[in-house]
Amino acid sequence: MYRAFCRGFAGLAIAISGVSFSFAGMLSNGPLTVETNDTTGTVHDITFNGTHFFEYNPIADFGFQGKNNPTLELNQSNAATDYFDLSMSGLSYSGTYDNVLDIAFTRTYSLVPGQNVLRVETSFTNNSADAADFSYFDIYDPDPGATSAADDVATINDRFILDSVEVGQASLASGLSVLIGSYDSRAVVGSGNPTGNWTSFFSSGNPDANGALSAANRLQIGLQTTLASGAMTSFTYDLAFGTSVSGTQNEFIEANVATVPEPTSLALYGLGTLCCGIGAAYKRRMKKNKDA
Fold first, then answer.
1. Would you tell me which of 41, 169, 247, 252 could form a disulfide with 242, CB atoms 3.0–4.6 Å apart?
2. What are 175-194's pLDDT values in tens digits?
């Protein structure tokens, strides 16, 4: 059964590379467990079927960049700096990107019921006086099976079209995989060794390892958008996990299948509505005759 809970650790700190921070958010459905960093609002660790993907050498970062301001602001899972003055409520983190612009945002983590899929939903509001052009992005470095901070696990990465959307996948030779993607048409996905800055990621092409094995491979996703003053938008992407390449892809697709009533259900609903209408008309006619 799907379950979600948050844990508070008063005074508990995790040290990685000499940096201390705490984590307090957790989601679990049994096979898949996600821990978030309550300082930076990033993913701290993901465990799937007992294998840690981000416990060591964690790179699970998110950030912003303004179109007219190339300065990058990035919250990192293995750092203690919070650029966005985050506040936490459950598994939602709210903050502001205020480098020249004034973009309020709320980033929420959840597990898709019945699937081994982490969903990350972010809403944005432009509180700037003028229209705002900005980029928003995430980068992940999966190290499945790492047993120490010295490990840097190589993954087989590829970027391709799945169910009409662009996705990136990182896998081990055993088939253990993680896939990132979004059904938002604005999404840009990368799956390989990132080069250059985030401006080039959006403008000149996202990385694609084309099935190559490398410890430098990453998974990236983001969007560029323009918001009028006072306008709002949102962006959602999924991280799907599985023990095989195809199984992971199926997890992603199934998590995004809309629930459509079966024809029998629709027929019953229509019949019920018709009966209710006939009954109401009969009551009105009887009341009219009685009053007469």
1. 247
2. 999 999 999 999 999 998 87
Residue 204 pLDDT level (bands cut at 50, 70, 90): low
- Same domain assignment for residues 30 and 110: yes
3-state secondary structure of 259: coil
Enumerate residues 6+ apart whose C-beta is below 8 A from 25.
6, 7, 35, 36, 38, 88, 90, 91, 109
Which ranges of 122-226 would DSSP assign to H, the alpha helix?
198-203
Closest alpha carbon to 39 in 10, 81, 70:
81
* Domain identity same for 225 and 269: no
**What element of type H or E holds 248?**
helix 245-255
Q: By residue range, what is the domain housing residue 77?
A: 3-255
Alpha carbons 237 and 112: distance in angstroms, whole number:
12
CA atoms within 13 A on the CB side of 62: 26
* 276/265 Cα distance (integer angstroms): 16
CA dist., res. 13 & res. 25, Å (int): 14
Return the closest-CA partner of residue 142 out of 130, 134, 151, 133: 151
Q: Helix, strand, or coil here: 42?
A: coil
Count structural domains, the chain. 2
Shared domain check, 139 and 269: no
Contacts by 213-217, CB closer than 8 A, 24 or more apart? 213/154, 213/155, 213/156, 214/154, 214/155, 214/157, 215/152, 215/153, 215/154, 215/155, 217/141, 217/154, 217/155, 217/156, 217/157, 217/170, 217/191, 217/192, 217/193
